[in-house]
Recover the amino acids of this structure.
């Protein structure tokens, strides 16, 4: 089983990688590359949802949370999940609304999504202490 610090470091790498993907996808739509935006964000959708589900499963069934993490790490992880789980739920609206071209819904949810995602990124990368 992975240790607490290993889990947190892996999480940071994954959050950074998918955020880079999202940033390129937003650049793509801002410069009119709709197909590229759709493809990159489809990959973003799969990777992000897989990470959130795998991470939740690991914390619930895979490790003893009280032994693996310090109280500060547990608190920081909880705050991170308050952003990550709503982000994941919003993605369930973002992908279908993009594919079906419900443009107003897609852009309105996209505005909320970007704010919640910034919270996910900041709490996942900067505020998670990864040293045991
Ligand atoms: C976060 C801010 C986002 C903005 C401002 C945005 C904006 C847009 C816009 C303007 C379109 C073109 C819609 C049309 O012409 O009907 C589009 C298409 C699309 N978007 Fe987004 N989007 C965002 C995020 C996302 C996310 C997170 C996903 C997936 C999880 C996504 C998936 C798609 C898909 C699949 C399409 C269709 C592409 C195609 O027609 O080939 N978008 N988006």
């Amino acid at each position: 089983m992975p240790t607490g610090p290993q889990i947190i470091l892996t999480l940071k790498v994954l959050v950074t990688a998918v955020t880079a993907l999202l940033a390129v996808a937003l650049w793509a739509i801002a410069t009119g590359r709709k197909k590229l935006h759709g493809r990159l964000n489809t990959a973003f959708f799969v990777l992000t949802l897989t990470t959130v589900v795998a991470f939740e499963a690991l914390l619930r069934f895979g490790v003893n949370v009280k032994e693996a993490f310090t109280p500060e790490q547990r608190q920081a992880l909880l705050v991170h999940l308050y952003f990550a789980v709503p982000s994941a739920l919003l993605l369930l609206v973002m992908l279908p609304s993009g594919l079906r071209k419900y443009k107003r819904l897609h852009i309105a949810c996209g505005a909320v999504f970007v704010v919640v995602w910034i919270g996910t990124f900041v709490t996942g990368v900067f505020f998670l202490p990864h040293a045991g």
In short: The two ends are 16 Å apart (CA to CA). Residues 4-126 form one domain. The chain has one domain: 4-126. The mean pLDDT is 96.
